[in-house]
Amino acid sequence: MIFSYRTIRGGMDIHFNKLTEEYKKVTIDIFNYYIEHTTAAYRSEKVDYDFFNALVDENVVSAYAVMNNANDVIGFCMLEKYKNIRTFDELGDCMYFIKPEMTGKGVGREIVSLLENDAKLHGMKKLVVDISDENEKSIAFHKKQGFIEYGRLKNCWRKFGRNIGIVYMYKDIGTVK
User: Are 93 and 80 a contacting pair, CB within 8 Å?
Assistant: First the structure.
């Protein structure tokens, strides 16, 4: 099921398919790349393919495989409820991972736009993200997308033998008119 076609930098079209079991292996492979090689994913050990079911759980409002022209998965994204408590219904939490060779090409911008639209359709008024404080590119990217930093937890987790912090950012998105 194709949800949206969008053209990114360089004229390549991408589209979003509902994230289903069909994309389990490639989704987990992308996630495991970030687990093994970066601090963008907080886990320290690779996950198995069954983790997909925990990733796409009952808090997920929408989840997509990000596809290129050749129908190859180049990333995945999801919008989750911030907490599964009714009083937090207006707050959404975004997560996305893009194959490293596809970053910096406009894919992230299209993901944020799609998730913002989904959030508005579900009555959400704010989006939040949490980012490793070592991931300066992601922090800068989110600032360009209108996110504002609202807090930091310094040295609150450990990976690759280093103490690392988390940067919390939010974006006011209003609601559908």
Answer: yes
